[in-house]
Amino acid sequence: MDAVTKENFPLDNFCARYFMLAPVQWGIAILGADEVYNGTKAITAVEPIGERAVFLEVAYESTLRFYIPQSNTPATVQATLLDGKSLPVRFERNLSLIPNAPKGHIILHY
Fold first, then answer.
1. 58-85 pLDDT, tens digit each
2. Which pairs count as long-range contacts for 25-28, CB under 8 Å and 24+ apart, including other chains?
């Protein structure tokens, strides 16, 4: 969604709705980790590597979520550790996720 799009939804009494706002930079928006209350705190560094890859430094083992506007198939996103080991990437609706991503360094190619 862009900065001017409006979203209407009902809320019951004592009900809240949580939104994550993250900028798309270098063709990707890093949303953070599911298991951390402030999910963006789980990512301590994001650096671009070329045009379609980023280096992530992850502070906690967790499920990482990210959004890539121009990617809609699992085959177009690859996650690897520095030693070359591949990590599984799943898709849920328009978001990508890496379940049980380890603490440390991850490279995302998209």
1. 999 999 999 988 765 666 889 999 999 9
2. 26/51, 26/54, 27/51, 27/52, 27/68, 27/69, 27/70, 27/110, 28/54, 28/66, 28/67, 28/68, 28/108, 28/110
Q: Rounded to an integer, what distance in angstroms lies between the CA atom of residue 60 and that of residue 93?
A: 25
Q: How far apart are CA 53 and CA 15, in angstroms?
A: 38
Tell whether the torsion through CA atoms of 90, 68, 82 and 101 is positive or negative.
negative
The domains of the chain are located at 29-109
Distance CA 98, CA 81 (A): 12
Q: Are residues 106 and 58 in contact, defined by beta-carbon separation less than 8 angstroms?
A: yes
Count CA atoms closer than 13 A to 51's CA, side-chain side.
1
- The torsion region of residue 47 among left (phi > 0), alpha (psi -120 to 50) and beta comes to beta
Q: What is the pTM of this model?
A: 0.78
